[in-house]
Amino acid sequence: MKLGLDGQTVLLTGATSGMGPDIARAFAEEGARLGLLTRQPEAVADLVQELSAQRVRIDAFACDITDADSCSAAAEAAEAGLGQPFALINLAGGSGPIGKTGVETTREEFHDILDLNTTGIFNMIRAVAPAMMRAGRGRIVNVGGTFGLRGRAGRLAYSASKWGLRGVTKSFALELGAYGITVNTVAPGMVDGPRFREKVCANMAVAEGITHEEAAARHAADYALGRVSTARDVANACVFLASDAARQITGVDLPVDGGWAAL
Amino acid sequence: MPICPGDTRLPNQFSLEGMAVFVTGAANGMGAAVSRVLHEAGASVVLAGRDLAALDKLASHLHGSRVVPCDVTEEASVAGAVATALERFPTHRWGLANVAGGTGPGGKTVWEHSLLEVEDIFAVNVYGPFLTMKHFLPVMIAARAGAVVNVGGTFGFKGAALSSAYGATKWALRGFTHSAALEAGPHGVRVNSVNPGGVDGPRLRRQLAEAAERTGVPYQKLYDDFAARSALGRMSSDIDVANAVLFLLSDAAGNITGQDLLVDGGTVV
User: Fold this and answer.
1) CA separation for the pair A155, A256 (Å, rounded)
2) Chain B, nearest residue to A230 by Cα
3) What domains, with CATH codes, occur in chain A?
4) pLDDT class of A130 with cuts at 50, 70, 90
5) Residue A41 above 80 pLDDT?
């Protein structure tokens, strides 16, 4: 498959933790130049060094996605340093309150997670899209979540933020299509990694009086394919949607969830 | 049960090396494009269809491919074609791409259809993929590997005045896709659909020409209006569709199942 990402500039938010490093590596393998937009550029220094050593052109830029001015400044700095952006991968986001009902969720908690997961991506697209519009081409991939496809008791604020993100995605897709820009969502289910192992499974093990391994197995059993996703599964979907091969795909939600959303 | 397969990084997860893919409707435009793209990605392609002359011609360009006669509306024909394919590529991981399909009677309301017309389009668009899945899924399940991609369409996402029977087949195919994904998933087998809208090719051009004839609106205007209905403002190509089929068959989509991926330039948004 011709992915066409060689030499293209890809901007990625949220590279500091979780799936970020693996998504950066996947684009680096395709020959992309990488701009990591993060609140703490020093926190991605190891990743920058690792990929620089493989002759990847990569740099980090300070960016707080909840601050529109910061997004604009980061977009400008990245374009000056790495050239016209071809793709923007919006990974940065948070979990919001876990295990609280809507009634128990405070107004501030609700506001904060929407500010990060929904408004933050709106800010970022507003900052980067004009350069793509001038170029007449671009790819935007927003990392949502499967709780943006269903309701979720105990995760109301997070679920609302991911549903909101789909509205941002689809409306931008309609507005930016005429400029040759595609805008899509990748919706991962549970993703393996430190958060899953050390927080999610640990909490479940305590709550249910079961072992860590049993908690992990219960999570895996939620999915038709019998496993949680890997960061690489999600990275592959991002790479595909950013590639030439997906040039005619826009406004879609692509779940990477082992079949959970098919239920 | 493995929670996650560990490091799934491979040299190129978008490659289909070592996979054999059974492609239905391989003789026509989209099926031929899918076959070419899968072949380029390293797959051994089984070209299944009725027009053997066209299939043989395509096979002569795709080194290592095989032609098998197959009428997807006849179970005996499907069973025989699958058996032949398995004999020819006994050691391969299998993929199945259900591309064969028809358009059904256009321009008729629900109440103007005969039962036979509806049955005929269901036979090709729904029973066809059902039969190939019925005969391939046990093979994939036994191998604990494999992937199916059904080619549906945007009419499986919306109502379609004057194309109700065709639209209903595409909704039905999504139902089979989702349920088969849930049933086959625990055995390590994935089932997804790719849903094109407005694919530029002989079929769409013929339909637009008929509409121009019927309505008196110039063909070019109908063509341009059609393309303009998508966010990207252009028709899809059969290669766009083929690339999505390739992605969903590949290991790069290893944890994607039960999904309907639209390739329509942004019309169902």
Assistant:
1) 19
2) B4
3) 9-189+231-255 (3.40.50.720), 192-228 (no CATH)
4) very high
5) yes
What secondary structure letter does DSSP report for A223? S
Contacts of residue A258 in chain B, CB cutoff 8 Å?
Answer: 185, 255, 257
> Which residue on chain A is closest to B266 by alpha carbon?
A250
Region of A64 (left: φ > 0; alpha: ψ -120 to 50; beta: rest) is beta
Cβ–Cβ contacts within 10 Å for residue A137, how many?
Answer: 16
Dihedral angle at the C-alpha atoms of A169, A235, B188, B98, nearest 10 degrees? 60
Its pTM stands at 0.94
- Adjacent-strand bridge partners of A229: A191
CA atoms within 13 A on the CB side of B197: 29
Q: Is B47 helix (H, G, I), strand (E, B) or coil?
A: strand
Q: Give the pLDDT confidence score for residue B106 in this predicted structure.
A: 82
The residue from A158, A196, A223, A260 that is catalytic is: A158
Cα–Cα distance for residue pair B175/B182, rounded to 1 Å: 11
> For the structural domain made of B19-199+236-263, what CATH number should be given?
3.40.50.720
| Closest CA–CA distance from residue A143 to any residue of chain B (Å) | 15
| A31 reaches B (C-beta below 8 A) | no
pLDDT single digits (tens) B201-223: 988 999 899 999 999 999 999 99
Q: Report pLDDT digits (tens) over B4-63.
A: 444 444 458 899 999 999 999 999 899 999 999 999 999 999 999 999 999 999 999 999
Please enumerate in sequence order all residues whose Cβ is within 8 A of that of A42, keeping only pairs 6 or more positions apart, or say none: none
Instruction: Specify the pLDDT at position A228.
Output: 95
Q: What is the ipTM of this complex?
A: 0.92
Contacts of B240 (CB under 8 A, 6+ apart): A247, A248, A249, B196, B199, B263
